[in-house]
Amino acid sequence: MKCPVCGQDCIQSSDDLLKISVHRFDACPSCHGLPRNKQLSPDLDFPPPPCPVCGKRYIDDVFFHIWLILTEEKVIPSDAPLIDAGVPHLHPFMVLRSPPYLPKKSLILLTHAISKTIADRLMEEIPELRGVVCDHRIVPGLSDGIDSAVYHTHECITGCDLHATIFSSPAGNIVVYQRSSTMHIEMPRPFNPKLLSLSRMIDRKNPALVIDGCCGVGTLGIAAGLAGMPHIILNDRWYAAAYWSAVNIEVNRQPLGLQECVWSTDWSDLSAKKVRRCPIEILQASGENLRISVLHGDFRCLPRKLSDLSASLCVFDPFEKNDHQKLRKIMDEWKENTGGQIFMP
Predict the structure, then answer these.
(1) Which has the least CB within 10 A, 233, 272, 303, 319?
(2) Counting beta carbons within 10 angstroms of the beta carbon of residue 139, is it exposed (0 to 12), middle (13 to 18) or buried (19 or more)?
(3) Based on the domain organization, do 30 and 123 belong to the same domain?
(4) InterPro entries from the xrefs (predicted)?
């Protein structure tokens, strides 16, 4: 699939990505990396070069190189600690046993107050970079509450900020793509309580339909498909979440057993209305034993759009969870309006 960010072939099927990711961040016998104290400023004059055998470089050495350029350009002071160079987003994110050795085009950098000129210099001089994102010190997406239409984004200054994440679920591995500038990043862990909670609820309720009301990039909905659920609806108010959920259904189509994926809209149309209330369909996918729909809108409007939901299980996982009374009211209204089940993983 063509990447909507850079136009290149960044998006691979889940099977293809998993195959190339097994040893992607491993050191070869010739690699030598030195862990550095992130709270101190580095004391080297020149960044260590990549390994002459495999071409990878230890992540702390890469960040020293970034730090060096940012201090030369006076983005950060010369006595700044290494941690001030920025935040790493790996491609792909996965559970790692040890700090990574980075191959080319495997790192997206989130950093503050950076110009296009300096970002281009970073991309030119640091081969491990695939993109540079200006971090606006916000949580990207709809992070101000479930009824707010206020959204925030970072800014991709240069390169491509699309990356994949590999999650391990009880039913198999899941690959999801998202942009660092438009979506909150959920890190993979050896133990994922949300995926385990979903698996247990499916076993207990055995629903005919699983609805992920605030689906993010689609991880929980895909997990439901891998667990054998026959009908799944992924829904989100934020355009980027809905779009990448649809992409990720296609990415995981082989393990899901999908034979057809039909799009109803595209990236440019979705971008024109970033937050939507009345749900519209983005993608329909089907296989011998599975139907999946991806919608862009407020999941609370779904009872007016869909027929009988009494045998459904709704996964309700909003980003903002502080207003417990509000969330309980939403869940109670869902049960009253649909007769179905709803839970927070």
Answers:
(1) 272
(2) middle
(3) yes
(4) SAM-dependent_MTases_sf
Compute the half-sphere exposure of residue 2: CA atoms within 13 Å on the CB side of its CA: 5
The Cα 219–Cα 227 span in angstroms is: 12
The answer to whether residues 335 and 200 belong to one domain is yes
Which residues constitute the domain of residue 321? Answer: 191-343
Closest CA to 272 of 311, 243, 231: 243
Q: What distances in angstroms separate CA 58 from CA 24, 61, 68, one per listed residue?
A: 12, 5, 16
Q: Read off the tokens for 171.
A: 């039913």
Number of domains in the chain: 2
Model confidence over 16-27: pLDDT tens digits? 999 999 999 999
Return the CATH number at 324. 3.40.50.150
Regions of the chain short of the pLDDT cut 70: none
* Residue 141 included in any domain: no
Residues 218, 336: one domain? yes
Whether 113 is in a domain gets the answer yes
Cα separation, 31 vs 53, in Å, equals 8
Does residue 160 form part of some domain? no
| pLDDT digit string, tens, across residues 207-239 | 999 999 999 999 999 999 999 999 999 999 999
Q: What is the mean pLDDT of the chain?
A: 95
